[in-house]
Amino acid sequence: MTLEDIKRRRIAMNQSDISATVKLSAVEYIAGDTIQATVYVTEGQKKKSKRSLTLNDLSISMRVYQISKFNLDEKPILSQLMATNTYILKNNKLDNDENKMTQVHQVSLELDEELAPSMEYSQIMSLSYKLVISIHKTIYNKTDNPVPHPKFLQTIEYEDALPLYDSSRLPLYDNLSRSNICAE
Fold first, then answer.
1. pLDDT tens digits for 21-44?
2. Which terminus, N or C, of the chain has the lesser number of Cβ atoms within 10 Å?
3. Which residues pair with 63 in a beta bridge?
């Protein structure tokens, strides 16, 4: 299996000042091999108010597709997912200066031992593979607006038990029901 990609490729996300560089250990693999990649995620900070990347802010997804196509057609006749793996990134700082912060992550994807090799059937048809590495921001962030504890609970006092009953915290339902009866 040959990956039609250069060894280093840089992808920039235009929404925020985040970019990623992927470095593959090889571009040719056989069935049963493990694709290993090093991903460098860099965030350049334009404003000091912007927060930097933190734990669980990003996830990496690796997918290998088998592509079958007729050589005369531009679109493939079949594109089938063969292997996938997803990682939640841990904060692993490599370089941290005033303008940029870089995280380094090792990811891998094991290929099935029964994959057919890349090949071309004369000038009629070809079978190839495509590696897709995508980086996504996760929807959860531990540092942004943590859920506050209810005001009537003290964090340490009721950690393993329910709070003690106190009737002063409850609304007075008797007054509400009597006023509804009188109004009718």
1. 889 888 888 888 999 998 888 876
2. C
3. 84, 132
Q: Please give the Cα distance from 89 to 10 (Å, whole number).
A: 18
**Domains of the chain, earliest start first:** 8-137 (2.60.40)
**Distance separating alpha carbons of residues 3 and 64, to the nearest angstrom:** 10
> Residue 120's beta-bridge partner residues?
126
Strand ranges across the sheet with 93-96? 8-13, 18-24, 34-44, 100-110, 93-96
Kindly write down the DSSP assignment for every residue of 58-77, as one continuous string: EEEEEEEEEEEEETT-SS-S
pTM for this structure? 0.60
Strand arrangement of the beta sheet that strand 58-70 belongs to = 78-88, 58-70, 125-137, 119-121
